Amino acid sequence: MPKVTENYKKEKVDKIVKATIEVLKIKPLYDITMLDIIKTAGLSKGGIYLYFKDIDELLIEAINRIGREQDLIELSSVRDDDRIESSLALLFEELGNYIDSCPAIIGKIRFELMTYISNNPEKADTIMSKLQLNNVGAHFMENVALLIQKGMDQNIFDKEIPMEIIMNNVSAYIDGISDRIVSSKVYGGKPLQRPTREYFQQFVHSQILLLKNK
Amino acid sequence: MPKVTENYKKEKVDKIVKATIEVLKIKPLYDITMLDIIKTAGLSKGGIYLYFKDIDELLIEAINRIGREQDLIELSSVRDDDRIESSLALLFEELGNYIDSCPAIIGKIRFELMTYISNNPEKADTIMSKLQLNNVGAHFMENVALLIQKGMDQNIFDKEIPMEIIMNNVSAYIDGISDRIVSSKVYGGKPLQRPTREYFQQFVHSQILLLKNK
Amino acid sequence: MPKVTENYKKEKVDKIVKATIEVLKIKPLYDITMLDIIKTAGLSKGGIYLYFKDIDELLIEAINRIGREQDLIELSSVRDDDRIESSLALLFEELGNYIDSCPAIIGKIRFELMTYISNNPEKADTIMSKLQLNNVGAHFMENVALLIQKGMDQNIFDKEIPMEIIMNNVSAYIDGISDRIVSSKVYGGKPLQRPTREYFQQFVHSQILLLKNK
Amino acid sequence: MPKVTENYKKEKVDKIVKATIEVLKIKPLYDITMLDIIKTAGLSKGGIYLYFKDIDELLIEAINRIGREQDLIELSSVRDDDRIESSLALLFEELGNYIDSCPAIIGKIRFELMTYISNNPEKADTIMSKLQLNNVGAHFMENVALLIQKGMDQNIFDKEIPMEIIMNNVSAYIDGISDRIVSSKVYGGKPLQRPTREYFQQFVHSQILLLKNK
DNA sequence: CATGAATGAGCCTTCATTCAT
DNA sequence: TATGAATGAAGGCTCATTCAT
User: Could you tell me the pTM of the whole model?
Assistant: First the structure.
C-alpha cells in the first residue's frame, strides 16, 4: 500500500490508541502486552511499530488521550462577586457530577500508574513528564484554595487552622471518594448508594463552611 | 508421628510466608517471582510447591498474614461513661498514631491488590473472600458509628444527615489520607508535613463535632 | 525512448551504490540494513528492489565499485633502465604513500568481506568472482616480482631462495601492515607511530635488498 | 533432575562450550544465535541460561577455551648461553610449526572479533577484558625483542634502525602470514604451498639476521 | 520429602521483502 | 515507475512449573 492520505495514518493511529484503551479497560497496565493490543487492533506483529516506537510510547499516548478527552469537561470558574459559601458549594457540586460522569478507566489508570512507575523507576521521569493527567483536579483545588483564603481574609472562616492542613484534608477526602468510585466501577467493589454530589454536600457543609468563625 | 510432621510443615509454611512478606515489602505485587521468594526463603525451586500449589495461593496467604498480624494492635474501646466529643477525638488520635506507626506494607498491599485482582477476575472471589485486611479499620469505623449514633440520639448531633453519608465520608477521608501516606512511604511521593494526628484533629473538629445541633 | 530510460536507470543505480558506499564507511558490513541505505539514498523502501534484487546484490556491487575506483590511482611503472635497487625502494615508497592515502574503507571491506562470505558459503563464488579488489596490489606485486627476478638473473640477488617464498613473504608483510592501518583507522586500534613509508624502508632494505649475493 | 554431581554440571558446560565452538567454526561470530548453539548442544531454549547468563558470556567462554587449549603449546624459552642467531631461527621455526598446527578457528576468531567488537563498542571493554587470547604471540614477541636488543647491545645487529620499526615489521609480517593461513583454512583461499616454517626461515634470515652490522 | 535441571510458552522488537495502490 | 504500509520470521531472554533422581 503506497502513499496514503494523512487521514489514513491518523485513523490508523486512532484505531490503535482506541484498541489500547480497550485493553486498558480490561487489563492492568503492567500486564498489557503488545500482542493484546495487536490482536485488539487487528494488526500484524510488526505493523504496530510503524505507528509507535515502543509499548511505552503507545501506553502513554493512550493514557494521555483518556486524560485529554476528560479535560474537555470544564469546571466553572469562580467569579469575584459570588458569595463564598455558595461558590464553594457549587464547585463541589460540579466536581461531584464530574466524577460521576468520569469513565471508570480514568481512575483505574490513576491507580495503576503509581505501581507501574514504582516498578520501573528508571522510566518514571520519561513517562511522568509525558503524561498530562489530572488537570481538572488541579483547577478545582486552586479554586477551592482561593475561596478559602478569601473567606479567611474576610474573617468568614477561622484563621487559626493552617491552610496546608485544610487543603490536604480536602484533597485526601476527594481522593478517597474517587478511589471508592473506581473501586466499585472497575474492580467490582460495593458502589456508593447516592450520587457523589450528595456526599460532597455533606462534606462541604460541615467540613468547610463550618470553618466559620464561631 | 503425625504431630511432629504437622509441626514441621507449619514451620516450613511459616518460613515461606515470612519470606514472601519480605519480598512484598520491596517489590510490587505483580512483579514478584517465585525466584524472589525462593531466594529469600532459602528454598529449592521445587520445594515451594510442596506447600503451596501455585504462586497465587502463596501471595494470598502472605497478604492475609499481614492483615492478621496487624490486627494484634488494638484501639481502645469506647466506654459508656466517656463524653462523646472527647471519645471521638481520642479515637481519631489513636487512629492517626496507628497509621503513622503502620508498616508501609499494609497500605502498599491494599493499593496493589486491587489491580492484581482485576487481572484475574476469576480469582477475585477466592482471593477476596480469603482476604481479611482492614480489621482495625472495621473496628474503628464501628466505634465511630456508635458514637455518632449516640450523639444523634442524645440530640448532640444533627439528626438530619443520613448516617450512611457521614460514615462513608469519614472512611473515604481516612482512605485518602492513608493512600497519601502509602504514596510517600512506598512510592516516593511527597510526604505529609505533620503527623497524621494533626490532620485528623482538624477533620474531626470541623467535620464531625460540628455536626452539633446549632 | 529506450536510451533516456537506460540513462535514468544508470543514474539511479549510481545513486544507490554511492549511498551504499557511504554506509559501508560507517557500519560493519554485516550490520548494514536496507533502511540504512534507503535513508542515505533518499529512496523509498520498495524502490530499491527495482534496481537490485536483494541486499546482497547491492552490497557486492558497492564493494566492486570501491575496488574499481581505487584502481584509478596508478603506481609508476618500472622502467628498464632504472637501477634495480632504487626501483624497488621507489616502488615501496610509493606503495607506502598510497596506503597512507587510501580511504579507510578499502581495508575495512577487505577485512569484513571475508567473514561475510563465510556466512553465505553458497554465495562465495558469486561474490568472489565478481569482486575485483586489490588491483593496485596486483600491479605492485607484479613489478616487485619483475625486479627481483631481474636482480636474480643479473646475479645481484641470491638465486637460491625460491621466488614463491619471497613473493609470499612480501605480500604477507604488506597485508600485515595494511591490516594494522585498517585496525587503527577503522576499528580504533593503536595507530602506527610513523608514516607507512618508513616501515617499508626498513623492510625493503633488510628483506629484499639484502637478498644480495654475499 | 535433582542435585547433580559437580561433574554433571561441568560436563554440561563443557558440552555447551563445545557446541558453541562447533558453531563458531561454521558461522561468523556476529551471526551466531542462541538457537544455533541450543540446537547443536541439544538443549531447550531456556536450558542454556542455566549455565550461561547471556550469549556474550557464552561466546567469550568459548573463545577463551579455544585460546586456552592452544596455549598449552609452549614455545621454548630463550636461554642465555644460546647464540643469538640460532635462537632467533629456532624461535621462528617453532612459531611456524605452531601456526601450522593451530586449528583454523583460532585465526577465524581473531579475525571476526575485531569487526564484532567494532559493532558493539559498548561491549568492547567487557568483552576484551574477559578475553585471554594471544598469549603465545605475546610470549613470542617478547623473546624476539629480547634477542634483537641483545644482538644490538653486542654490536651483532645494526643499532641504527629503531627497535619500534623492527618489532612492528616482524609482527605485521607474522599477522600477514597468519591471515593467509586463516584465509585458506577457513575461508577457502589459496593455501600456502609449503609449511609456514619455510617462509619464516627466509624472513628471519634476510629480515632479521641481516640486520647484522655490515 | 527435597532438589534443581529442564521445559517451553511468551515477551518485545527488528528487518528484508512483498504488493496494493 | 514509485511508494511505503504491511507482514511474519527470527532473535535474546524470563519464569512458573514439572519431574527424575
Answer: 0.75
